[in-house]
Design goal:
Helix content is 38%, strand content 18%. It is of the alpha/beta class and 450 residues long. The structure holds pyridoxal-5'-phosphate (PLP). Pyridoxal-5'-phosphate binds next to helix 5.
Length: 450
């Protein structure tokens, strides 16, 4: 470790990291200081080049260090550094971005509420639906159906909608949320065919609605592909069937596209283009600005907007930085770059190569399942593939593979026994192939030491 890195880490002793074993971080060599970035790569404070295999945090979609983004943000700050979207105020960048998002979003999703994180986007969706139902004279229609394995964020309500493992012992707003079965066929399918498993999931949804009462449920929230739950794809047709049941019961479908939007699955939004359904609300963040500025959007249907903007009533919800000018400028330029450089189309071409490369790792015994789509992939390691027996948590297999990758120049993200890969969307074929080669070496090294 260089003196430079040592000095940064001394200062860093005052920083509390997120989703970390804070005690383990005190150990020598546990933290990585990322000090600069360009394109698909980041550089640590000792000067090592690393492929950013997780795109920052599944967000740096157009790649790092884009000068156009920097110019657009600084131009905006010179023109108008800050003004709010509270009360009767608005500003040109927020207005233009709202219009652009409404054009890109499917169907009748035409009104946009800005926030500054995916968590806030999801909280805002539920608060809007509560408001919507109060205005419709049915204030008891408040509960949310979510799913085991979901990740919807870290604010209080978003945490309650997230899979219960994230809030154990904490006082989550569980009276507001009911968790449906995990849609993970490989882990939960139990000898059923995928079609039979789908029926079981849909029955669970219908039974839950009947038990709780549709009159008490405002929303069903689902990620098109569960991300932080280990990159879990539901059986084909799941989202459409779930949507139809929700619609029949007057329950709004909230698609959490915080990760899946803005190109990661090859489209600006995945709900309609990949999964064939138009939800009532889409929440998004991350790739909306490719991480250059913190910004989220809760995009709602005309029906919801008409009710919450009807006569006689205030919408009592707001965050100081909702639609911040610099963030809105970043969003507009990011989308313009994606359109001009055809990033979603590029992902549709190169994503299958990434997927196929990673699926090729199934020839290594400890690789149990490779799952996901395009540039949103997970690799689960198992002790025994036939029985799907997991390694014990304290073996920290995912972490060991991530560390072995980092030694070889690739950042991956460990989540228990799963390694997540969600790189920038600008990788060329040689980079994609290099990721596979590094993973192969790293997994073999870890396997040999188990
Ligand atoms: C699907 C999903 N929803 C919501 C969130 C929360 O977003 P944020 O961390 O910006 O609050 C995340 C974050 O990873 C996410 O993956």
């Amino acid at each position: 470790m260089t003196q430079h890195t040592h000095d940064i880490l001394l200062q860093d002793n005052h920083l509390i990291q997120s989703f970390a074993d804070l005690n383990a971080l005190k150990q020598q060599g546990a933290r990585t200081v990322i000090s600069r970035a360009k394109g698909a790569y980041v550089y640590d404070s000792d000067g090592n080049e690393l492929i950013d295999g997780i795109g920052g945090l599944w967000c740096v979609n157009i790649g790092h260090g884009n000068g156009e983004m920097v110019d657009a943000i600084s131009r905006q700050l010179r023109e108008l550094d800050y003004y709010s979207t509270f009360y009767n105020f608005t500003h040109p960048a927020a207005a233009a971005l709202a219009e652009k998002i409404a054009q890109l979003a499917p169907g009748h999703l035409n009104a946009v509420y800005f926030g500054n994180s995916g968590s806030v986007a999801n909280d805002s969706a539920i608060r809007m639906l509560h408001h919507y139902n109060i205005r419709k004279g049915r204030p008891e229609k408040k509960m949310v159906l979510s799913r085991f394995g979901a990740y919807h964020g870290s604010t209080h309500l978003a945490m309650a909608m997230t899979t219960p493992g994230y809030s154990e012992g904490w006082h989550a707003a569980t009276d507001l949320v009911h968790h449906l079965r995990s849609p993970h066929y490989w882990r939960e399918g139990d000898g059923l065919t995928e079609a039979e498993f789908l029926d079981v999931l849909i029955e669970d949804l219908s039974d839950s609605i009947e038990r709780i009462g549709a009159e008490n449920i405002c929303a069903f929230i689902a990620e098109p592909i569960q991300g932080a739950g280990g990159v879990v794809t539901a059986p084909a047709g799941y989202h459409k069937r779930a949507f139809d049941i929700c619609k029949a019961n007057d329950i709004k479908y909230v698609a959490d596209e915080v990760v899946t939007a803005f190109g990661r699955l090859g489209h600006f939004f995945a709900s309609e283009d990949v999964f064939g359904m138009v939800p009532d609300i889409i929440t998004t963040a991350k790739g909306l600005t490719s991480g250059y500025q913190p910004l989220s959007a809760t995009i709602v249907s005309d029906d919801i907007h008409d009710v919450i903007s009807g006569p006689d009533g205030m919408f009592l919800h707001g965050m100081t930085y909702s639609g911040h000018p610099a963030a809105a400028a970043a969003g507009l330029t990011n989308i313009a770059i994606m359109e001009r450089d055809e990033i979603p189309q590029r992902v549709r071409r190169s994503g299958p190569r990434f997927e196929n490369n990673l699926r090729g790792l199934m020839d290594i015994d400890m690789v149990g399942e490779v799952r996901g789509s395009h540039f949103m992939m997970g690799i689960e390691f198992v002790k025994d593939r036939a029985t799907r027996q997991s390694y014990p948590d304290d073996a920290q297999v995912g972490l060991r593979v991530a560390q072995a990758c980092q030694k070889r120049g690739l950042i991956g993200r460990a989540l228990g026994n799963v390694l997540i890969l969600s790189p920038t969307l600008i990788m060329d074929d040689p980079m994609i192939d290099r990721i596979e080669a590094i993973l192969r070496d790293a997994i073999h090294e870890v396997a040999a030491g188990l």
